[in-house]
Amino acid sequence: MMIFRLIGESFRFAWDALRQNKLRTALSLLGITIGIFIIIAVSTGVDTMRDKIQSSVDKLGSNTLFVQKWPWIFSDNFPWWKYVNRPEPSLRDYLALKDRMDMAKGVCYEVSANNRTIKYRSNSVEGANLNAASQEYDQTWDLVFQEGRYFTDNEGQSGSPVCVLGAEIAEGLFDGDNPIGKQIKVMGRRITVIGVFKKEGEDMMGMSQDKNVLIPLNLAKGIFDVNNERYNPQVTVRGKDSISLDEVESELKGQMRSIRRLKPGQEDDFSLNKTTMLSNQLDIMFGVVNIAGLIIGGFSVLVGGFGIANIMFVSVKERTNIIGIQKSLGAKRYFILLQFVFEAIALCLMGGLLGLGLVYILTVVFTKLLDVEIILYFRNIIKGIGWSVGIGLIAGFWPAYAASRLDPVEAIRS
């Protein structure tokens, strides 16, 4: 109970200091407020952006591997001349992997023709992405339909002229009408719409099914060369849920080397890309941004800490006779020390809470007025409070220690 009473009195002393010396205390708290604001604002922005980008990365699948010509991440000494002569993933690679992979839930061959114009009667949509995939596409990607369905096995194997539209393409062509069963024109071919993907909205990495048109791979073979490099061929492999990604990757690498007939010691002529590569790069990039914000905010907090220490020394000087009376009545040194330490922490908490309040106002402004969703996470609130308590503890300790060492007789005389 004594500790709680001590904390209550400390907050009362801090409030009295703020009320009696408004300008002096406000200027001293300004450094704490600005510092906490910068640190938490940067952390909030970084965490929001990281989570949004990570959710985009997660769409690729945590247990999915992509066999491609180029790696997603390049090192500083990137040997581009080695990669440029690599062969693209081919239908032959896909068919061989499909037969050999035991740990894969699905193996899919995909190509894409970008910036195409899709037409329906007098309506047209430009800039659409025409994707062609083998029948296993629904096993390697998580598909959610707004209307209609996916290709049947017969439609995929026979190359039936059917397609699944993205939500934006469907809206642009049919303007709210039901598109199922209607024919659109794609690269000179008439294709029947059998499904519409659920509207996703564009994410931080620009990935979305909204502007895509998906057709069976065997249909695409009659429209363009599916092995051509200009159509970005890739083989997507999703491992079984009960098997770790490392095991799937190890099997896939061995099978690809066997298919490409690479000798032991010979370098791979393919890249196995996975989402963890992007996640690790994001951690590094945002870690640097966080450190930069921490350094900038740290200087402000440091200046604010000196201001708090100065206030506490003045407070000790003004209340020296009170300290003497307390000690003469039996107050222990630790009681005096804790009293002033808690007072310093209370002052810093006021500045920290003000900084957190400014960050919250900033998130509301961005979310409501600029339509950019920014979230003030609970962990960042705890971080702001933790910084405030830490600075208060450091800034208030030496003045509090000096107060606790005062001689009661000399203190009363002052």
TrEMBL record:
GO terms for molecular function: transmembrane transporter activity. Its main location: membrane. Pfam families: FtsX (PF02687), MacB_PCD (PF12704). One of its GO terms (cellular component) is plasma membrane. It is a multi-pass membrane protein. InterPro entries: ABC3_permease_C (IPR003838), MacB_PCD (IPR025857), Macrolide_Exporter_MacB (IPR050250). Residues 25-253 form the MacB-like periplasmic core domain. Residues 295-408 form the ABC3 transporter permease C-terminal domain. It is found in: Cell membrane. The chain crosses the membrane at residues 26-46, 284-313, 334-353, 385-404. Keywords: Cell membrane, Membrane, Transmembrane, Transmembrane helix. This is FtsX-like permease family protein. It comes from Pedobacter polaris.
